[in-house]
Amino acid sequence: AQKVTQAQTEISVVEKEDVTLDCVYETRDTTYYLFWYKQPPSGELVFLIRRNSFDEQNEISGRYSWNFQKSTSSFNFTITASQVVDSAVYFCALSTYTGGFKTIFGAGTRLFVKA
Amino acid sequence: DADVTQTPRNRITKTGKRIMLECSQTKGHDRMYWYRQDPGLGLQLIYYSFDVKDINKGEISDGYSVSRQAQAKFSLSLESAIPNQTALYFCATEGGNADTQYFGPGTRLTVL
After folding, report:
1. Under a CB-based contact definition with an 8 Å cutoff, are residues B60 and B46 in contact?
2. Cross-chain Cβ contact A105/B42 below 8 Å
3. Chain B residues with CB within 8 Å of chain A CB
4. What is the reported pLDDT for B1?
């Protein structure tokens, strides 16, 4: 069975601090996809990244970076020099195709960035 | 114009009523999805469609049906709404070189 765990329910930081959001997943599939999404207080959903299981290269996009480690089944997300606009709920998700497409979301981590 | 639009944005209805939520996209993507989000939780997949002729159930499809009228349109119906279907519903598309996903703004549905 697939599972996504975001153990941090809420994180509070002060602006300009770096913050890492953890995501641990479980699947028996060898081919799978991992995602991160942002849901700001306004409620919309924003896709941040999609990573397949064969690509363990770390990714950097501006102040955002992602660390994918198959050995620990983790796909962690770091925001460098956080800003108030980063305040949101962040979701990690896992998709697989074996036996039919499935996608499982974690419960989310709420990030508060204080000025 | 928004890439993915959903109508209505808010709806209050009564138990037993039939409701249709509509989704349109201008991205030209084949893949489309319907999700629901309950308060404090992540999304759950209701139905997905990888092209116009391909429609599949997700993990929580009971009580829902869908129609893919065209590449750009994917509608979700609640045949007989019940209170535990009160939730925020999102439509999404996926495609392009980077398989980027685009979400609609969401429909907040309340079933009394």
Report:
1. yes
2. yes
3. 40-45, 48, 50, 56, 58-59, 88, 90, 92, 98-103, 105-106
4. 63
